[in-house]
Amino acid sequence: MQTLTLGKTGLLVSKNGFGALPIQRISKSEAVYLLQKAFYNGINYFDTARAYSDSEEKMGAAFEHIRERIIISTKTAADTAEEFWKDLDTSLKTLKTDYIDIYQFHNPAFCPKPGDGTRLYEAALAAKKQGKIRFIGITNHRMAVAREAITSELYDTLQFPFSYLASDEDVAIVESCKEKNIGFIAMKALSGGLITHSAMAYAFIAQYDNVAPIWGVQRESELDEFLSYQEHSPAFDDKMKKAIERDKKELSGDFCRGCGYCLPCPAGIEINNCARMSLLLRRAPKEGFLTPQWQAKMTLIESCLHCNQCAQRCPYGLNTPELLIKNYEDYKSFL
């Protein structure tokens, strides 16, 4: 198993990290099996969040008796110190542990700092002093917040989107983390499902010795793919580079990454998928998106209230209502 040291934490983590968001969609027994299979095949780093419904509970069931042999990161979306402590206590109970290795602020719209009035960072320091958390991290999709977190030097880790679709600005974030010895955790390494070639995704990230990717895993076949790369790491060759350039050209400009921070929609639109339907139809087997169920979901776009809440929440500054209309018109051409 390839490993790396996660910045100033000193934690030695597997280069394959397990992203536990998708396991909320499968049964508890299936999730426990996947998590334990990952561990017994060399993966020691598992990432979840309080917001991922029962993901923490499933992780607790899988690892209660081997807790000291794994590294766990989870997240809080708390806005106040009171909510912070409530989330932390809940996470400790559901994970069946008395400490969390990396406790992360979950995509805040600002960078929590001492004296900012929220007392969030002060709460994290107190939790660390009590031994309930070992390191303080932050996750974000906003470039400005990520930069501020790095320059503040308050954080042990930064979790940020990073894939072979990365811009020069994204690469600069990775390099800044290395300079500051901040652990860099790569989320969205498959760009929310738009990257369909996992070997290319793996090979690209393997170039960066300070990047710890967390792969979202829901099926055993997905886990097996990433486990296979441990034994036979795919080479980042000229063929891959050309394929990546083609993908970057196709996905250049404004496109929905599927992060879901636009939700919930008051009209019930599944924005995080409907706003990128054109890409999904062309980059995955289209038949799965042309079912009566998906047609009904896309038709909901006609009920858009034009409240603009989705655009206001989008960390990428997209004109989401406009994207929805474009994708809906394109979708109808496939029917």
What's a quick, concise take on this entry?
The protein has helices spanning 28-40, 55-63, 81-94, 120-129, 143-152, 168-180, 198-206, 220-231, 238-250, 271-274, 277-283, 292-299, 309-313, 320-332; strands at 3-5, 12-14, 17-19, 45-47, 71-76, 100-106, 133-139, 157-161, 183-187, 211-216. The chain has 335 residues and is an alpha/beta fold.
Can you give a write-up of this model?
The N and C termini lie far apart (about 45 Å). The chain is of the alpha/beta class and about 325 residues long. Helix 5 links the parallel strand 7 and strand 8. The longest helix is centred in the first third of the chain and has 14 residues. It has 14 helices and ten strands. It has an eight-stranded parallel β-barrel with strand order 3-4-5-6-7-8-9-10, surrounded by five helices. It is globular and about 60 Å long.
